[in-house]
Specification:
By secondary structure, this protein is an alpha+beta fold. 22% of the residues lie in helices and 35% in strands. The chain folds into 4 domains: 35 residues, no CATH class; 67 residues, Trypsin Inhibitor V, Chain A (2-Layer Sandwich), CATH 3.30.10; 64 residues, 2-Layer Sandwich (Trypsin Inhibitor V, Chain A); 64 residues, Trypsin Inhibitor V, Chain A (2-Layer Sandwich), CATH 3.30.10. Strand 1 and strand 2 form a beta hairpin.
Length: 240
């Protein structure tokens, strides 16, 4: 039988071939894999379809661990990756991604007939914001309630968008109604009179131990009286 010499030892040719095959098919791949670490590319901002090409070329695998709404990021855009970009990895490493679901769209709730405060709360619960408030004048619906929204109720808009309101300010006329301000503080009464297009007139003081100082005790016009806008209302207020 023909023999060859390896490191001074006579080895049959067939045995040598087997050793070479083992070295080539088992030993070398193992050694290569142990030294084949490479920095992980940055996939953030890429579309998933685009990233898949690079992942396949690098002999990596991936998993979409979660999806979330992301304004300004088209559906399928990679938002985060684990491990982080630059981390040393080996082939067959699994990369996990958080991917955008795109812009969240919400339907505007029906706000007609509600107070501005309640409308604000409703918009907040729908992940929307209060936009501009315009005033309408009507004596057929209560004052300070929403007449309609624009965009209209039921319209789908991106989450976080502002919704504008048309709010009734009262009848379109030059007269108003006297509110009850007795029992309010002077500051509260002055603000309410202004809201009703009335003016604060003469303020006189009277000692009354039954009330806190600056409490309105009397008003010059009775509650519900129909008055011209701009009418001055005199008040009697408890003394300090």
């Amino acid at each position: 039988m023909r023999r060859t010499v390896v490191l001074g030892i006579a080895v049959p040719v067939v045995t040598l071939i087997i050793l070479l095959l083992i070295f080539d098919k088992i030993v070398m791949p193992t050694v290569t894999r142990q030294g084949s670490e490479f920095p992980l590319p940055d996939f953030v901002g890429q579309r998933m379809l685009e990233a898949q090409l690079s992942i396949d070329e690098l002999n990596l695998s991936y998993e979409i661990s979660s999806e979330q709404f992301s304004p300004g990021k088209p559906q399928g855009t990679i938002l985060q990756q684990f491990p982080m970009p630059g981390t040393k990895v080996k082939p067959d490493r699994k990369i996990r991604f958080i991917v955008s679901r795109g812009q969240k769209m919400v339907a505007i709730p029906d706000l007609a007939g509600k107070s501005v405060r309640q409308a604000m709360l409703d918009l907040e619960s729908y992940d929307l914001e209060l936009g501009e408030i315009a005033l309408a004048y009507s004596d057929t619906i209560p004052e300070r309630v929403v007449v309609f929204s624009y965009p209209a109720a039921g319209s789908e808009i991106p989450a976080g968008s502002p919704v504008n309101l048309m709010v009734n300010r009262g009848r379109a006329s030059n007269f108003t109604f006297m509110p009850k301000v007795i029992g309010m503080t002077l500051d509260e009464a002055a603000r309410l009179l202004e809201d009703k297009y009335l003016k604060l007139g003469l303020v006189s003081y009277r000692t009354d131990e039954n009330y806190l100082p600056e409490t309105v005790l009397e008003q010059s016009e009775p509650e519900g009286a129909e008055l011209d806008t701009g009418t001055e209302i005199d008040l009697v207020v408890s003394a300090n």
